[in-house]
Amino acid sequence: MLKTAIVAARDRQRLQEIAGILIGFGVNKVVDRLGLRAIPRLAWRSAPAVDLARLSQPERLRRAIEALGPTFIKLGQVLASRADLLAPQWTEELGKLHDKVAPLPWDVIRPQLEADLGAPPSAIFSEFDTDPIASASIAQVYRARLESGEEVIVKVRRPGLQKIIEADLRLLSHASRIVESEWPEMARYRPTEQMRHIANGLREELDLANEGRNCEMLAALFADRDDIVFPKVYWEYTSERVLVQEFIHGIPPTDVRRLEDAGLDRKVLAQRGVDAFLQMALIEGVFHADPHPGNLLAMSGNRIAFIDFGIVGRLSQRRRSQLLVLIGAMLQEDADGLMAVLLDWSGASNPDLTRLEAASQAFVTRHNGATLNLGLVLTDFMTMARENDLAMPTDLAILFKGLVTADGVMRQLDPAFDLFAAAGPTVRRHMRAQFSLKDLKGRFQGLATGLYGAASELPTLIHLMLVRLKQGRVTVEIELKGMDKLTRGIERAAARVAVGLVVAAFATQLAPRLMEHGTPAFATIGILVLTIGIGWILLLARNR
């Protein structure tokens, strides 16, 4: 629609690029629904030459997302974990999205890095390798050594990235509103809210200083444990576009031979890794949201190191309690408890309770008694939500993605690893703590304090009400949805009745009297008034 082009006028060039790529990859349904074909002077040169006949619709979308850049890659990665929103053929294909891109040349990176450091790298680091050890859509990572001898990594945001991402976020925000209005069947999934969550996360990831703060915040949660390691942040060199952190010497969990050569116990590593993740998510309410194999390292002494904190998830106390109940219901094969949590998350949707109850019981039966594969369980759980027209809350979708990723890593460390069994003691311990006498006493004290505050105001409120009653000044305000339409309807009906009465009175009483006088003028006026009255009634009836 043309409105899209008008709203996005400030980002016309980027919109043309996006449209050209989508059209080039044959993502026609999205193009047509968003009205992108109506945009004048489309940049057809952006359209890649692709043999569409050889690509399925999910493949076309995935290839288009990769061509569109970091904002869309992040969106695609989020959607890949949303089995509650998309069918398996779409999530499986989007799961192939990668965030590795060709590195920018050092000559492009160097001027920005010098400006942020306030000096050439050679003046700050005794060693600096200009060949990046990692390159992603947001930043490139270099290895260096400080003058004091510490080995560090230097993470540098790609130049000119923020302007593109902000334009993309504006356009996607507008697109999400179009989706809600044009596709009513998608409104229950709250695309505007989902997009807002993604935008907030991406903006946080762009700020490398925020990543440093996330690292220190999580490290503080494990200050009393020496088996969980976080890198030190060098704040004197860190800013929005540069992050300097301790270089962690460790072994990726996928490198089984190196782990065995180092004499590390893979079962212990898996248990400690999941303990740390569950403590973050279920107890502290803040967790590493992307614990893939590249962000976890095994260290000597069976220690686990977490790195890369661009994406951090957060859970409220209420959400953590719900999650504990959900895991408890799964462990205890409690279909009713599972259904209760789903209904609590359903928000404004109105699911078929009989169908949902049957689905919950079938889910419990499918996963009864076997060693649970968390990835399959959570994917099945989200599929059940989708089939019952329920959408997961965004914060929980991020957690589920993290849990599935963590489960995959732990299974690489220990193929027999069962995250549910490993989580059992943690869940039971914290459920006992949550409902212990001490905890219940604290809750009752809080409730009593609130009730006391309300009760202390009650005499004043009662006295004021009695005074108002004596004065006859009690006012009751009732707001009904659609009352304005009802009011207009009543007004129209009253108008029709009034006009009808006037016309009827004229026709039955006044008109005969005028005719008796034999005055042609009066007769003409009477007929005219009668005609106008009848016409008015018909017009009002038509405009109901």
TrEMBL record:
SUPFAM superfamilies listed in its UniProt record: Protein kinase-like (PK-like)
Keyword Cell cycle tagged: no
Signal peptide start and end residues: none
Protein kinase domain boundaries: 127-486
Residue intervals passing through the bilayer: 493-515, 521-541
Keyword line: Membrane, Transmembrane, Transmembrane helix
KW Membrane (keyword) present: yes
Family annotation (InterPro entries): ABC1_dom, Kinase-like_dom_sf, Prot_kinase_dom, UbiB_kinase
Assigned protein family: Belongs to the protein kinase superfamily. ADCK protein kinase family.
The name this protein goes by in its record: ABC transporter
